[in-house]
Specification:
Elements: H1 25-38, E1 41-45, E2 52-53, E3 71-74, E4 77-86, E5 90-91, E6 98-99, E7 103-110, E8 115-119, E9 133-138, E10 150-157
Antiparallel strand pairs: 1-2, 1-3, 4-7, 4-9, 5-6, 7-8, 9-10
The chain binds zinc ion.
The site of zinc ion (ZN) has 7 residues, from loops.
Length: 158
């Protein structure tokens, strides 16, 4: 018995723009608005355990109580806890653009006491190390992209 040839499928990639908008909600929206308008990082504090919630959120996950509007402005300086040098192409889900260049991505303990993952300006692997002090460098244009309003974190102390 002769097997019938299967149907041939061809794949044609179609690159098209897919603009979309999404609601950030009250709490994340406040963080993004402060970043866009004032180059500030803010978050809210739990009224019961007094911990900073990051990113800002309506309920404290530990205490299960409404977090409310106790807003705290945080420093945009911090300490690199760890980093990973990303060397493959990525898509940034916040803006839909491809991240074209390799870059070091770090977990940064902000001086306010919360952890933030972001890019580092320093790309020399010899100069990258845990414990280095960094500060946010904010974009001057094309703002309104959440925490991507920060270009990267610049080394301020080795
Ligand atoms: Zn709490």
């Amino acid at each position: 018995m002769v097997k019938e040839p299967s149907q041939e499928h061809i794949k044609i990639p179609i690159a098209m723009s897919r603009p979309y908008r999404w609601a950030t909600g009250r709490y994340l929206g406040k963080l993004y608005k402060e970043a866009r308008d004032n180059k500030k990082l803010v978050t809210n504090r739990c009224p019961k355990c007094k911990e900073l919630l990051w990113p800002p959120r309506p309920v404290c996950g530990r205490c299960k109580v409404e977090a409310g509007e106790d807003w705290v402005e945080m420093s945009d300086k911090g300490t690199v806890i760890q980093y990973t040098y990303l060397v493959y192409p990525l898509w940034d889900p916040h803006v839909g653009d491809r991240v074209a260049e390799d870059y070091p991505n770090a977990t940064i303990l902000l001086d306010g006491g919360v952890y933030l993952v972001h890019k580092l300006e320093e790309k020399d692997p010899e100069k990258l190390k845990a414990g280095m002090r960094v500060q946010a460098v904010w974009k001057e244009e094309e703002r309104g992209q959440g925490l991507n309003d920060i270009l990267y974190f610049r080394t301020i102390e080795q």
